[in-house]
Amino acid sequence: MTFLGIGLKFAIISIIYSTLVLYSHSLWMSHLSIPIPRVFSQVFGILLMAIGIPIYLISGITIRKYFHEGKLATKGIYGYIRHPIYGSWILFIIPGIVLLINSLIGLTIPIFMYVLFKILIVKEDKYLEDKFGEEFFKYKKRVGEIFPRFWNIFRTS
Fold first, then answer.
1. Integer Cα distance of 19 and 58 in angstroms
2. What pLDDT was estimated at residue 154?
3. Deepest in the core among 8, 27, 40, 97, taking most CB within 10 A?
4. In sequence order, what DSSP letters do the residues of 56-107 get, joined into one string?
C-alpha cells in the first residue's frame, strides 16, 4: 500500500458521484434547496469548511511524517480519530460545500462517501493490521474511524 492508502480510489469515485449529483442539481433539481434560511446554510457551510480544512491539512502533514518513519500514527489528531483525512472530507468539507451551494440532493454526497469509505477502508485497515499487528489492534479498539470515541479519551489504560 502506498502513502495514499485508499485515498486515490476514494477520491476518484467520490468525484464521479459528486459530479453526477451536482449536474443533476443544475439541470433538474435546482429548485430543491435545503429548507433553512440561506444565510444560515452559508454561515454553517463556511464554519464546517473552516473546521474541516485545518483537520485535513494537519492530518496530512502528520501521516506523511509517520508513514516515512514507518510508524503507526497515534498522536495528535490520530489519538482521537484513525482516519481524520477521510473524516474531514465526509463530515466537514463536503457538507460545507453542499450547504454553500444550497443543494438538497447534494446532501447525498457525504452519505455516499461514508458508505464508500466503509467499503474501501477494509483494505487499508488490513494493511495496517499486517504491518503493525497488536499495536494496531489496540489502537483500533481505542480510537474510532472518523467519529471520536469520547468515552475512551479519558481512560487511563
1. 27
2. 59
3. 97
4. HHHHHHHHHHHHHHT----SGGGGTBS-HHHHIIIIIIHHHHHHHHT-TGGG
